[in-house]
Design brief:
This protein is an alpha/beta fold and 304 residues long. Helices cover 47% and strands 15% of the residues. It is globular, with a radius of gyration of 20 Å.
C-alpha cells in the first residue's frame, strides 16, 4: 500500500476494525488498539489475566476480523511438543515417512492457557515464533505468512500453571491485560446476546494481502533523531541496577511504536506513540509490574 488512495482505504478499514471489535470487547479500546498494532508490527501478543475476563473472546475476535486462517490449541498438562508442531508418520503404502502438520501451521494461532502445559511443550513454539518455521528431524518446514501467535495465560497463583521461560516471554512483542469491565460495560454484557454470536454477525475487515502490505508499511514509518534518543534514554533507565531491556527489546519497542503510529494515521513516530506501547512491550522483559514500568518511564524526559 503506497498510494494516497490505498492509505485512505486502510484508514477507513482500521476505523471499521476498531469500531467492530470494541462492540464485542466492551470498554477496552486501548487494549484492542495495541493488539492491532502488535499484528502490524509483526509481533506476537500474550494476554494475561484471570479466567473469564474475555481473553479468548478477544483472540477469536481478532482472528475473525483480520480475515486470516485460524487454529486454536487448548494447552493442557499432558500435551506434547508434537501435538503442537506435528510429527513424522510412516506411510505404509509408499513405504516412507511423511510429515503430518500440527495446528501451528496456520496464520493465527490461539495458544489458549499456554502456561498450563510443561515448559518443554511451551518451548515447541520458540522457533515458530522467532523464525516462522519449525524443524522436525532436521528438516525445516516454513509456516504460512503472516504468522501471529495470540496466547493467553492465567496468573501463576492458580493451580496447574507453569511459569513461561524468559526466552519464551521475550518472543512476545506485547503482554496485555484486560482486567474487570466497568459497571456499565458489565451491565451491557448481561443484557446482550453471547459475544460469540455477535462475532459471527461481522465480516472480515482485512485480507491476507492487506495485512502483509501493512506490516511492510509499518516498518517504513519514520523515526526521527529525537525519538531515537528517547528510546535509548528509556533503555538506559531500565538498566540501572537491574536486568534491563536488551537490544532486541529496544528494537521491539521501536517496531511497536511504528505500528501504533500507523494505526493512529501518522507517517512518523512521536514520543506519545512510544509511551503508549512502552509498558506492554517492556514490562514482561524486565520483570516489573505494569505500575513499576510506568513509573520507570515517567522518570525519563523527552528531549528536543
Amino acid at each position: 500500500m503506497q498510494s494516497d488512495a490505498e492509505l485512505l482505504i486502510f484508514h477507513e478499514k482500521t476505523d471499521q476494525f476498531l469500531i467492530q471489535i470494541n462492540q464485542i470487547i466492551l470498554d477496552k479500546s486501548q487494549q484492542t488498539r495495541l493488539a492491532l498494532s502488535c499484528l502490524l508490527a509483526g509481533g506476537h501478543v500474550l494476554f494475561e489475566d484471570l479466567p473469564g475476563l474475555g481473553k479468548t473472546t478477544l483472540a477469536g475476535s481478532l482472528a475473525h476480523l483480520t480475515g486470516l486462517d485460524f487454529q486454536r490449541i487448548q494447552f493442557t498438562s499432558d500435551m506434547l511438543a508434537s501435538d503442537v508442531i506435528g510429527i513424522n508418520m510412516f506411510n505404509q503404502q509408499e513405504h516412507r515417512f511423511e510429515f503430518k502438520h500440527g495446528p501451528v501451521f496456520t496464520q493465527i494461532l490461539l495458544a489458549d492457557e499456554i502456561n498450563r502445559c510443561s515448559p518443554k511443550t511451551q518451548s515447541a513454539l520458540l522457533e515458530a515464533m522467532e523464525e516462522g518455521c519449525v524443524t522436525v528431524d532436521g528438516i525445516r518446514h516454513p509456516l504460512p505468512q503472516p504468522f501471529w501467535v495470540i496466547a493467553t495465560q492465567n496468573p501463576l497463583f492458580q493451580s496447574g500453571t507453569y511459569a513461561l521461560p524468559e526466552s519464551q516471554l521475550d518472543r512476545f512483542l506485547m503482554r496485555l491485560t484486560l482486567g474487570y469491565p466497568s459497571r456499565s460495560a458489565e451491565k451491557l454484557l448481561l443484557q446482550q446476546n453471547s459475544r460469540h454470536t455477535l462475532i459471527t454477525t461481522f465480516n472480515a475487515i482485512f485480507s491476507r494481502q492487506e495485512i502483509i502490505a501493512l506490516q511492510a508499511r509499518a516498518k517504513q514509518v519514520a523515526v526521527g533523531e529525537t525519538v531515537l534518543g528517547y528510546l535509548l534514554d528509556l533503555a538506559e533507565e531500565t538498566r540501572k541496577g537491574r536486568h534491563g531491556l536488551s537490544t532486541r527489546g529496544v528494537l521491539a519497542l521501536k517496531q511497536a511504536a511504528q505500528a501504533y503510529a500507523l494505526v493512529g494515521k501518522r507517517t512518523f513516530v512521536t514520543a506519545d506513540d512510544v509511551q503508549a506501547v512502552f509498558v506492554a512491550v517492556t514490562a514482561h522483559r524486565i520483570g516489573l509490574s505494569e505500575a513499576e514500568t510506568l513509573l520507570l518511564m515517567q522518570k525519563v524526559a523527552v528531549n528536543g
